[in-house]
């Protein structure tokens, strides 16, 4: 878990390091133990009035793909620097005309021990066609919990940051 100050410094590093013309705006920088995800906003395509939803969606997807290919070398260079400095993989994404696309992202394995009742929940999700595997079913459950507990998780993260600040002020902090 990193503190809000560390998160702000990380975002500031990317804001300072990214070329000014890469994104219209640095929309989001998120971090966990394995990965930093950088999402920027890019301009939507210019379309004639009254185009169909299908045409608009295809144009936005095309713009996102064009951006991904055109900026690959720049993004890889920045990612290498960040991975060396922060010891985490860097993933990229964009927001364009209301759509969000992630180009790369880490799928980190997580070990867990589940008792039979929990395994039965996962197996029911598989049998019902919600997931193809226990791994996919568990990821689905995590996304469901995340969707319904954002406020609770935000409060918990704030509490953990407070604990980290208090630890940093403790007697062991001077020894480091």
Structure report:
The structure is a single chain. Strand 2 (35-41), helix 2 and strand 3 form a beta-alpha-beta unit. The chain has a 4-stranded mixed β-sheet. With 176 residues, it is α+β, with helices and mostly antiparallel strands. It is built from 5 helices and 4 strands; from the N terminus they run αββαββααα. Helices cover 53% and strands 15% of the residues.
Task: Describe the structure in brief.
The chain has 176 residues and is an alpha+beta fold. The chain has helices at 4-17, 53-86, 116-127, 134-148, 150-168, and strands spanning 25-31, 35-41, 89-96, 99-102.
Topology:
Layout: H1 4-17, E1 25-31, E2 35-41, H2 53-86, E3 89-96, E4 99-102, H3 116-127, H4 134-148, H5 150-168
Parallel strand pairs: 2-3
Antiparallel strand pairs: 1-2, 3-4
Estimate the global geometry from the Cα principal axes: globular
Count up the helices: 5
**Helix percentage range:** 40-55%
Q: What's the end-to-end separation, in Å?
A: 19 Å
Count of beta strands: 4
Low-confidence stretches: none
Rg, alpha carbons: 20 Å
Spatial strand order of the main sheet: 1-2-3-4
Share in β-strands: 5-15%
The residue-averaged pLDDT reads 91
Largest sheet: 4 strands, mixed
Structural class: alpha+beta
User: N-to-C SSE series?
Assistant: HEEHEEHHH
Keywords:
single chain; 176 residues; alpha+beta
